[in-house]
Amino acid sequence: MPVPENWPTTEAEALAEQHRLRALVEPSGPGLADGALVAGVDVAYDDASDLVVAAAVLLDGTTRELVEEATAVGRISFPYVPGLLAFRELPTVLDALAALRGTPDLVVCDGYGLAHPRRLGLASHLGVLTGLRTIGVAKTPFAFTYEQPGPERGSWAPLLDTGTGEEVGRALRTRPGVKPVFVSVGHRIGLAESVAVTLALAPDYRLPETTRRADSLCRRALARAAGGEQ
Question: How far does the chain reach from its first CA to its final CA, in angstroms?
């Protein structure tokens, strides 16, 4: 999964690319079949050594057992700009996904899909670039508003763009009484289906198992990579 040619290097170029790619997002599609392969991706940085590490884990979507995992190490090549993190993270994420032998039926991103000011968060951007089905499951609501969902597992409330009234995602309670996660469509799957997948992948913890495993793996890989730089 090579990075496209002419990858943006400035904020103006990145904004223009987001507006161009937004029209290519497919915001609907079915849920997952039994035994589907689900990937999780996550990224960690070491600013002192200019390193970025991405991890990709592939799980059986029914049993949540690990099938395989891969990491990739790169250099930070885009400045930190809120709303443009995909341009900072995706090159290394694409390398990590390419290192997997299996092809995921869905990729769960630790971040946003359509719940993004320009409706092209990392999950949607990744989906359009690769053609893979994607969802975003974030820890915070970014710039959007929501009412608290009910306290029981599975309760949800709309995540709303106050400027347009549009539902861009859902605040989802994955654990009773624990703060919600924020689910949004990435590409080629619907919102209700994205919520169902998230619940299936998070039977015991707040975050989906894909995210938990990818986070742990990329942190370990970053520690190794940063140690090798010293």
Answer: 30
User: Virtual CA dihedral for 154, 190, 142, 156, nearest 10 degrees?
Assistant: -20
Distance CA 193, CA 196 (A): 5
Per-residue burial over 113-125, b if 16 or more Cβ lie within 10 Å, else e, is bbbbbebbbbbbb
HEC profile for 89-117?
Answer: HHHHHHHHHHCCCCCCCEEEECCCCCCCC
Residue whose C-alpha is closest to residue 25's, from 120, 136, 140: 120
206 touches 34 (CB < 8 A): no
- Do 85 and 15 contact (CB within 8 A), yes or no? no
Helical (H) or strand (E) element with 28: none
pLDDT digits (tens, 9 = 90+) for 39-79: 999 999 988 888 999 999 999 999 999 999 999 999 988 99
Sign of CA dihedral 78, 82, 83, 89: positive
Amino acid at residue number 25: V
Residue owning tokens 């306290």: 151
| Beta-bridge partner residues of 159 | 169
Average of pLDDT values for 141-167? 96
Which residue has 């223009």 as its token pair? 16
pLDDT at 230: 38
Tell me the two tokens of residue 149.
């969902």
- Token pair for residue 49? 């050594």
Q: How far is CA 214 from CA 11, 97, 113, 155, 204, in A?
A: 28, 12, 18, 25, 16
The H or E element that residue 53 is part of is strand 51-60
